[in-house]
Specification:
With 71 residues, the chain is mainly α. The protein contains 3 helices and no strands. Helix 2 (18-50) runs antiparallel to helix 3 (61-70). The chain is elongated.
């Protein structure tokens, strides 16, 4: 049984609380994704500050703001 089908089966068994369960499952996926994005943003900040700008970025402020938002 795949993980997705297991989640679907359990959330269907919640009955009237299934909507809340789906919302929490989606929020969990977003939180897991942010755990991967945070180190990437930090690396980009270090690259910009060290002078090895990625994709022509000259200012670290947009990366800093995104990093703070994910933090």
């Amino acid at each position: 049984m795949s993980m997705f089908s297991l989640y679907t089966r359990v959330l269907e068994l919640l009955g009237k609380e299934a909507r809340l369960g789906w919302l929490l499952a989606f929020a969990n996926l977003l939180l897991a994704g942010s755990q991967f994005a945070e180190p990437v943003l930090f690396g980009r900040i270090v690259d910009v500050l060290s002078g090895k700008a990625v994709a022509g970025a000259t200012s670290a402020w947009p990366f800093l703001m995104a990093w703070v938002a994910f933090g």
